[in-house]
Amino acid sequence: MKQAFIILGSIGALSAPLMAQSAELRHYWDFETDFSDHMGGVGGTAGTDVSTTVGHDGNTAAFFPTAISGGGAFDSDGYVELSPPIERLGDGTGPFSFSYWVRLDYDATSNPRGIFDFSSDAPIATMGSDGPQSLYIQTGVNANRLAFRVDGTTGNAVGFVPVSSFEGTADTPTGTWFFIAATFDPASTLDIYLNGDPTPAATVSATGLGTVNWEPLQYIGAFNVRVAANRGTEGGVDDLAIYEGLLTTDQIAALHAGTLAPTDIPAPLRPFPLAIKPNRTNSGNYDFEWESKDGKVYDLVSATALTTPPDTWPVWNGHANLPSGGTSTVLMDISGGGPARFFAVLEKALPPLLAADFESGPGGFVATTDAGTPWEYGTPNSSDDGGVANPGGTVTSGNGDSSKCWGTDIGNPGSYADPTTNACLTSPSIDLNDVTGAELRFAQALDLAPGDSAVVRIIDASTGNSITSGDFPLTITDANTSRADWNDAGPYALPVGAEIRIEWCFSGNGADTDDYIGWYLDDVVVSQVAP
Prior knowledge:
With 531 residues, the protein is mostly beta strands. It contains two helices and 38 strands. The chain folds into three domains: 3-18 and 273-349, no CATH class; 23-264, Sandwich (Jelly Rolls), CATH 2.60.120.200; 354-528, Sandwich (Jelly Rolls). The chain is flat and about 70 Å long.
């Protein structure tokens, strides 16, 4: 979040500690091509038992092997060792943040399971050297909780988040991906977020830790590898990111929703041009002008002291979500509020107009069926258990191994989409009247018989008529008729200036075929974009 500052009545500059509160990406492992840090240049050497799996977003993630039954040091074949190590962030006394995705598959042991560890070059007698670590605990007072811990020279802070509902079971060994963010502020608290939401029970004091110097033996996929009680993950890790400074709640929510990537996180707060002049008409009022960008919105916030970060200041007199004026934005005739006041302009990404991952419900989508197999919401289970030889593949999870989605033939193992099907799935209304640009993205899994039709239409919500614009109506084709993998679709530019609905319409070919399951839909996002 980029911010601009000015003090009414005098010229002033923010102190460096205040400016350093915003997060800047320092290290990032996306595991798409290898196990190295693609931001900070830290190399990653993977053991021979480390492999890859499908990540939370349908791309590639790292997979780490099972925990060890009983005692004994964890074998280096089971984790990624990092070199050169991260010595610390800044001078070791400032705030930092983590974000990462975890999948905990079924594990027959009760051992703790490491996610990563930047604090384990300690001898056995002194577990817990300086640095951060994360692990999943399966027994004891904190059983079934994920821990995030920071050790400093004079103390430690550790918070716990319950995540057992995402863990695999003996019947369904593959777990569900979940998102963790942790913000460590040595002047305040350690806070942990689960799937974009704060978990107040996990908030603990972060004061009194001293300097956090990260120990030189660092790795992903295990913890405490030099200690007899060390353990591996038995599951996946994806998009592990480390930031200097504090992620905001909006950034954390956007990282979870997929509308913001770790690489989009801006640099620490720095003053940028914000001009202020007395209004020529009304004494005590002012005119503001600042640099701005297309595709961004701005809040004018204010406080009477610099004792808290600007991104916590209240909006001044309702001036929130101000649209960009291009290269600069002007706000005229604004009350100054007294002789001494601090102002900031906060730059934000445009919020999504629609974001539906379907994990907590059908998202307001409505299915209509003229004939044949309907669109259904739920947990997909289109396996071949019924004896049907399905040449096109199966769908047994949502996108990114999530648990819910929409689809045809969604929960009927061994069955298929009726060839006489004519069915549509329709989104809630999306108001694009005051939007200058918008685009559609979604995830889909396809298993179409020759002659089947899959079309995305844009419907005028006021008339019910189909709108022809750009890519729409959009005909979807099945590029791989031997599999039904999840894939991302879009972005597709949407027509603006109207209230719309989006329809996904599937029609069978009418032939007597019995081995295709149709069309599955997940993770629908409509975003505002610059025109």
